[in-house]
Protein 1
Amino acid sequence: MRLPVGVKVAIVAIVVMGSYSGYANYIPQIESKPPQELSLEGGNVTPAQLIKAGDEIYKTKGTCEICHKIGQKGTRAPDLAGVGARAAKAKPGMTAKAYLIESLINPNAVIVEGYPPIMPAVDKPPIALNRSEVWALTAFLQAQGGTVDVALNDIPATVGAGGGGGGAAAAAVTMPGDAKVGKTIYMGKGGCLACHKAKDIPGTPVGPDLSQIAKIQTPDYIMKKILDPKGMGTVAGFPPGVMPQTFGQTLTAKEYTDLVAFMLTLK
Amino acid sequence: MVGAGLVLAGVALLVTALPAFAQEAAREPAYRNFPWIGSRLAVWAVAQLHLNFAAFILGVPIFAVIIEIIGWRTRDPRYDWLSHEFVKLTFAAFSTTALLGALLLFLFVGYYPKFWTYMTSIFFPTYWVYALLFFAETFTVYLWYYGWDWLSGSRKWIHVSLGVLSNLFGTAILFVANSWVTFMVSPAGVDESGALKGGVWAAINNYAWMPINIHRLIANIVFGGTIAAAYAAFRFLGARTDEERARYDWMGYIGNFVALSAFIVLPFAGYYLGREIYAFNQTMGITMMGGFMSWLWIIQAILIGVLFIGSNYYLWLGMERIPGSERYRKYVPPMLIILAIGFMVWATPRSMVVTLDEARAMGGTHHPILGFLGVMSAKNTAVNLMILTTFLSFVLYRRANRVSQKPWVKTGMAVQWAVIALAAVIVTFYGVYGYFVESLVRIGFSVYQVVAVLAAIVIVMAIDIPMFKGARSTGVIRWGTIAPRSQYVLIILAVTFTWLMGLMGFARSGIRQHWHVYGVLRDTSAEAVTPALGYAANVISVVTLVFFALVMFIFWLGGLSEKGKAGAHGHVAPAIAGGSEDHG
């Protein structure tokens, strides 16, 4: 049987595209997932947990490993082996932790000789680490040959504030809810104070301190976290699976928006 | 054509209503979910289809007007007929392009309202410019197409000017749309909160804008050429007479010639784009080339290898229908070897995802020998030598049935070979030297390599054209006698290039990762994950298939009106069989 030209051409086209697709499916499949937000504020974090969290940020969200190696000289950026010890002598009159924090949030302040000034500020988009994450990352860097003594308060409060949440459109985001009513839900129907402290509202430290949650997290994160705490991950240093998954059913829409409005006042 | 008008009117209406949409969007959720396939896939598919059609209707007219000018100046009616045929093909695709553009806009407004509000807050003034340019281009193209006979003879210059003008409008439209796309990749002119700092020009003139303008403009010409050549190939394979075969053989050759001419310079535009992305943000550049996307460039290398080898193979097959070309057959094997080695080098990955045992056996994630071929020094050298070889194929094809009568022919040829050899030496020298210097210095070497190749092309052609002017012919080209497999090569080239465009679209979009606008507007949707290459390739294949099905349907529809009207618009197809010593 003689095939029509159209059929023959279609077969050729499908075989060609099928080959390309087949090869693309054969090679390693790597997805790029959005980084998870890490919050350590108010938690009882041990130095080991802090370093572990910093290690994870170093390899993933911080994108540090793309240019910096540990124990290997890079062509784009210096080897970070022993940086915890070196940092103490890098700038006269400056402690190791202060130097490391400055290097992270203002990387052009000191440029290591022989390398180009290409490092972006890690607390600004697109990396956009929050205060907790910069804290953990600093601890991880100190652990490279130095002593880990960095505390959350060493990280400037302005670190990680804003950016990436929707530009001009997001800057104008306000919740329609009533923050005052939200506070009563926080202390009453929501039962949040059973596990969280929030400024002057005392709470059992089962979960993180929420006193500055609006500063360190986006509105989007807060809204999702209330409705799907498991899906949004557990803050390091706290037990997973404790926060109820049922607020989406127990709170009315009005109560939910009021609660979020209250949370957004916690800065 | 009425459809295009209606769509344009709809878009214009939407543009006027955009502020209201924007206000509404501010009260809306950030995202809505498109049924069944999800919003991301819906936007991806429609955007790729729209881009394919847009590239076609922008690319084909560029070389259609060039061909018309050649026909006008040489008074050769074949070129005028061919130009008219190409514009006819474009014309049939206009409505579909506009329709897909409008559909894409509706998807953004409906399913990504927060993103669209933000983009509108930056680019609203350009929407008007875009709409006006679209009107201007449509009317000019209408006049160009329908005025073909009216503006002939002494008024031909007016007709040609209309063709040039419509291309200028088309290019301007491309540049406006590129400003939106490139702003998403390398935003500029906005403060930390994402608000516009000054005028919209700063946002338009971002790092990636001009490189993308140049890259897309050239790529569109290649794309238009490959599609037109594939169309000719399809008609060639279905032809019933020698005359038809000859006509479509010639049409396919011209389409491929234009595509190849533009394709040769496309990698240089790609370097420029890559360099500007690094200049904008090193992290983005490194993620693009060495991060999760590193394997994408291996696939790209395979596709470009197919394009290079396919284009050369077509030229070599084409030489078989040219009496006198036998003397150049001996050059084919070495050229094939250079292309094959270049292809292998370019497709060699720098580092591979391997098992622990494999890594131990290799002594790391880099192969001890092949790993050296995976770096940019080797790849730049390979691609430059492939470009040089392809150019050489073309030069040999061009002179296949010509014997120069100029007294200085020996000197001329010696200089030509010396220039090509010198370019090859420069390319290889900097390729090897690149291993011994820092990356910043190495990047600069690629400029020397590019300049050497471009200079060789210009010098060789500057000698070749006068050298073969008035040359003795060894016989006429036997148009229509080319092996049918050559026509399948043209179809493979068109499919491959279309697929490559889809892949590059994924690369451009994927390097933003979880950002709608990199570093400014985060993608907080459930679909913020950038998919792996397998998934992306499947989407690209399906969309490419749909594109070709639509193109076939549109061409079939366009052909219906011509049935029974051999001399429609007075454009009788010229006889070509055995008719020319000219290569076009």
Protein 2
Amino acid sequence: MGLATETMVLNMGPHHPSTHGVLRFILRTDGELIHMCRPDIGYLHRGLEKIAEQLPYAQFMPYTDRLDYLAAMNCNLGYAITVERAAGIEVPLRAEYIRVLVAELNRIISHLISVGTFAMDMGAVTPFTHSIREREWVNDLFEELCGARLTYNYIRFGGVAFDLPEGFLDRLSRFLDYFEPRLEQYNRFISRNKIFKERLVGVAVISRQQALDYALVGPNLRASGIDWDLRRDEPYSVYGDLDFDVPLGNPEFGVVGDCYTRYWIRILEMEQSVRILRQCIVKMPEGSHWNRSKKKLKVPPGEIYVRTEAPRGELGFYLISQGGPWPHRLKLRTGSFSAMSIIEELGSGLMVADLVALIASLDVVAPEVDR
Amino acid sequence: METESILERIRRIIGDTDPVWVDDQPGDPYLVVPKEKLRRLAIYLKGDPHLAFDTLMCLSGVHNMGEPDEMEVVYHLHSMRHRHRFVLKVKLDRPPFFPHFYLRVDSVSSIWPAAAWMEREAYDMFGIHFVGHNDFRRLLLPPDWEGHPLQKDYREPEAYREISTTREEVEGIVVGS
């Protein structure tokens, strides 16, 4: 004879601290156990796709910053590559290296926030302040580079807006020298922390098949053991000339595809980003930073789907041009969107507290879901 | 597998005449499939071991105003096993009367679960109905929103639940010119 229980509907959000932006979940729970979990999204819908259809190509660049404000450089980069491929614009080599440099730097700070908020959602507030501290340094570097700390609007069609200021690379390598040992400190502090591990290992496992079915991308996909990284497998910019590993979820970390693996993959990716950055510093060529065209930008009629590896995985731009000054259609395909859609399936059967871990481990950013 | 051999395999299953292969424009070539054959083809694309399109990368709606007034649903497929990709398109007529009756296409959400939310978004933005979807409602906009904003002839309602959607004009600043 079990205890008679009754399900109840619990509303989580839209302003719950663990929801990383404005998200709402409608849960049907039986005590602590979730029977049904229904995400309700759209609170941050700004109609970016509609805006794109009404602006000249170049003017949409600042909006891509707002697509994912934690990784604005990567969004800039994806959009720039899309238009360049459609219009056939060449990019000088120095600009390509600067682009990879800022993209990887942005990946590091995006993962820092992800890891920091993850620990905070699990009840450890201090690691977040540490990750913010490291991020501040990078924000200063970006500010020096383009004047903005969060929404950069730095990458242009055919290059980047400004050349690297004097001594930038020295300051960057000083940051890397400072940052690399810090990562080890993180590992001592949280990654190998017994409480943190017990809380996450084996929680909300996403199988290989589920990851494919729901079109998960980026670190979430690799945590499920699928070896796919667009930087390596469909190289764009100068990633083909750079040497880096793609960390994969494997049983050494716990269970493949659980919350802890998704966390750990991000730590490993930061190490790889540091490696890429060091190569960029050494290889940085001289030359022009912007192949600035005097002619009006003309995108011939046609359509193209370009995807790049943003911190939250594949960022796809599907551009249809009819030859006009603005796109006929621009579809934004983001990593967080597919990550959100799997929560509906995975949520049922979890404990309420584990749902928080799941959301945090997928590194969902609400503006990227809602666009 | 090369795009040409993928196309050849698809032609074999769907019959030679129907699908239209468009590759005379810059960018990605695509295959236009009659909507009656979409579901059968989707099952084959996922199931065939040589094609094995196990991931739906992106599903987009497109509205082409003009002659004829039509909508498109575009499927960007990717195979993680073979590392190749392919683009499918379905075209739907949008006659001036009872357009919702014509804007219907089979849902592929039972084949690629990722499509479930993408189709809901396409419905939300374009008013395309996906038949056989088991949780079909708006995704991003409120359930009682009127119209589908990404249609080219969409007019924003003046108010939503008595909240104005425009700002009052301030002297010297032109809003929504």
Protein 3
Amino acid sequence: MEKIPILRMGRFLLVTIQVDMHDQLAMQLQNDLTDRIVADRAHGVLIDISSLEVVDSFIGRMISNIAAMARVLDAQTVVVGMQPAVAITLVELGLSLEGVRTALNVDKGMELLREQVGAAGRI
Amino acid sequence: MPPDRVVQPIRSSQDVVRVRQIARERAIAQGFSLVDQTKLVTAASELARNTLEYGGGGEVTVELLNDSVRRGVRLTFTDTGPGIADINLALKDGFTTGNGLGLGLSGARRLSNEFSIESKLGEGTRVAITRWR
């Protein structure tokens, strides 16, 4: 079965969503990320959605779930690369993605995570 | 140019993906801007998932609309599922009878120019959305 790869970048994990996600894949990703946050003692998760031309409430819920699980495990989540048409549509859809920071790209996302982690007094 | 009217069954998550593709193709064919394409496809995705998850599966009829002044796309989702007990409640943001965010119906309505819904308990539901260029 297909799996979304999770890359480790220092104390952060990077996930790139490129395919159309169905229920099983979404659940698998949430579980895998949770395991990896613990196993790698990750301080943050970067979710790259720059390939997604459509983000509906299903994907929105998956992202919110990931952020909530990460938070419980003392890790931050940053979503990067949201396409402008997607951003406009999400607002109209009413999806708020509360508790999820966003950044323009992976570089800026990592900067954001480093700031937050630094502020929390960790290296 | 894609056909004026096509019916796509919605029986699996692959079908939901196909619905998005068809909606995208039609929106492009009618000359929608990228943002309008995205709105239509996102609304279609919400309603297709609803048809699958709450309606027990069904189908969508996708039509190209061309009257003398404007061009549009209409998607009509139908299922013969349990139906919706309280439509007004179902249209409220955040209301869900499942694990969702409760934004599917209300969101699809906001993302569309026209929206209609009929439902009968024990018989099924029909939701139609239209977006004009």
